[in-house]
Amino acid sequence: MKKLVLLISLIAGLALAKTTITVGLDADPPNLDPVFSNALVDRQVQNQLYDKLVDLGSDLKIIPMLAQSWIVEESGTVYVFKLRQGVKFHDGTEFDANAVKFNLERSMTAEGSRRKGELSLVKEVKVVDKYTVQVTLKSAFAPFLAVLSDRSGMMVSPTAAQKYGKDFGNNPVGTGPFKFVERKRQDKIVLAANESYWQRGLPKVDELIYRPFPDDDVRLANLLSGAATVISPVAPKDLNSVRSNPDLNLFTFPGLGHQGVWLNVTKGAFANPVLRRAFAATINRETIDRVVFLGTALPSNGPFAPGSLGYDPKIAVPKQDISLAKKLLADAGKPGGFSFTLLTAPGPVLTQLAQVYQAMAAEAGIQIKIEQVEFGTLLDKTDKKDYEAALLGWSGRSDPDGNIYDFMRCGGPLNSSGYCNAKVDQLLNRARTIRLAEARAAIYSEALKIIQSDLPYIYVYHPQITIGASKRLAALPLVPDGILRFKSVEVK
Amino acid sequence: MMRSKAVRRFLSHPLAVVGLLVLLLLLMMALLGPVMVPYSPEKTDFDALQRPPSQKHLFGTDELGRDVLARVIFGARISLTAGLVSVFVALVFGGAIGLVAGYYGGNFDRVLMRLMDAMLAFPFLVLAIALAAVLGPSLQNTMLAIAVVTLPIFARIVRGQVLTEKTREYVQAARAVGAKDWSILIRHLVPNIAGPLIVQTSLSTANAILAEATLSFLGLGVQPPTPSWGSMLNAARGYLAYAPWMSLFPGVAIFLAVFAFNLIGDGLRDAFDPRLNR
User: Fold this and answer.
1) Is the backbone of residue A39 left (phi > 0), alpha (psi -120 to 50) or beta?
2) In this predicted model, what pLDDT tens digit does every residue of B251-273 receive, in sequence order?
3) What ipTM was assigned to the predicted interfaces of this complex?
4) Before B274, cis peptide (omega within 30)?
5) Global pTM?
6) Superfamily classification of domain A176-253+465-491
7) What is the mean predicted confidence (pLDDT) over A197-217?
8) Per the CB < 8 Å rule, is A241 touching B241?
9) How far is A317 from chain B (nearest CA, A)?
10) Are residues A190 and A183 in contact, defined by beta-carbon separation less than 8 angstroms?
11) Nearest CA in chain A to B46
12) Could you give the domains of chain B?
């Protein structure tokens, strides 16, 4: 009798066993509040906690989420959103037009908000009725929907946001498929299934645990041992061992970002455009792809990844040309070459990459001194233009504006070069107002030609999104923004 | 007379002789190696990435196609230089502090020694890492950081020795004939406390080599592409499963160098031990 009870409880226990997905990330998300977040890795967790007004499909098309449909007026300045009904936040409060107004205004006005830039053209948010919102822009802004598919479109509970204030990031409340349970800094973030999620039958797992593994090898070891169900990214050197493992799936696909070299045009050697071109001519993008990324990066010469608007396949990827580099050096009065310091963040891949640049530049007599500094210091130095050259890229946005506007316009917040060209400014501003895709793309191509000749930044490659996952994991959507969306994922 | 006895005793210590031979081998490698290996330690070959050891590359090649043998040999220069220079600096400054503190005593001694105690309170590596991080990554700064954290050890040893020696008759005799303080310190005291100092120098050098490797492993030492055993290990760490030769050879080199200095230190301790003098 006792044995039978034991057996029954064992079977019941198995049937009721929690399904958990453990996700290995390369950093601990600094802030889960979408308004104050500025790290790529934050978005991994935020996308499970919060639904957005609109989402991004695998083909980069904007798809409905909390907004079921929308109408854009001919002028491109008025957007009317019809909201999904019967959606509740994790704290039980209702999602409606007032919540949308609250969220957009919070992003636009909160002190220290990181969203102010992308929403700077919003003039007014009006509640038309309980489930209809009208947003009026100061001028046409083509990237607006793309902006709402990211952190600016994440809807947090107004009640919770008012209650917790600045501390909301530690007590996040959204409408998403998973709700916040607990977090231990630098250890784990635990989320549980939202049982009253508006999409019936979702999510399909009970628990989601995020763990930071900054070290590539530790992250891989956790995947191999089964301690992590899925990891992203997978270091280039480990791609083959994941690919050949019978228990694992490897997913690689083009992301939205770009990587390359910032050159400081405000002072030092690279104030001279001829020297910028000379260094650029020494770069062999194929070699970088082959040696450092084992063929998984895409050599490029622009900020827009393939598949996104603005990507122009006609723009050639320059080949290494040492004799051109030497000729340019001679033109600049430096036939024997020159030397500069290349700033890079630490890490095995970046160290290897920096040394490949160093070896290539040496072929033309250009001496590179590598200086490894902590990532925060790197951002600080590039912000203050206190450097000569720096390895720094961008994770990418789905709309081309997000990959170029703040980087290449005079005084742009992410313009690390100090570059300023009135013609480029004019083109970039114009591209924002045009809704017709082809016309926009043509303007970006025109601006890019100028940038490629001025060279404040040498675009070198598009990194791939790399995900290693247990074969037990099914139905993981692969979206080029690299964010793992777990709402419909199953564990077998 | 006593000197030659110490040398004889050291040479009759078989492990110490092994240590000395290994050290001589490493020194020779550092001095003559670049002549013997046909590759530059920084020359990349993107068509020969991570080749296993072969006749062409005896120790194989690394993640940028560089010859691992050439890098291990060149790394010997960096590691031995770092070890010897930092300990020499620590010996000179730490020794000077210990000498004056022990000889003059009083508040002067108390302040200096409490300062040294405060430094010793920090774990050796933690303090070295903190210093190297503040000073910025470079070989000079690494050596400086190691020297600073090694310095109090020498200060303590010297002070202790001076305290016992300064009451001896020969010091009193020197003072009686009117010798100046500095002359007593340098001419009379230093030669008489040299034994334990030499032993400590050898042992500290082993520690310093290990510390340099650790700091370089953490990216706080020499900057790429200059090879150091520690930075080679750091780069090789991720390839342990795919290209073990990248980590094996620098690892063996660190082991041998540290082992050699420790054996020599042990041998020297026995050689200078006054209890074995009778």
Assistant:
1) beta
2) 999 999 999 999 999 888 888 87
3) 0.79
4) no
5) 0.85
6) Periplasmic binding protein-like II (3.40.190.10)
7) 94
8) yes
9) 20
10) yes
11) A291
12) 2-39+56-272 (1.10.3720.10)
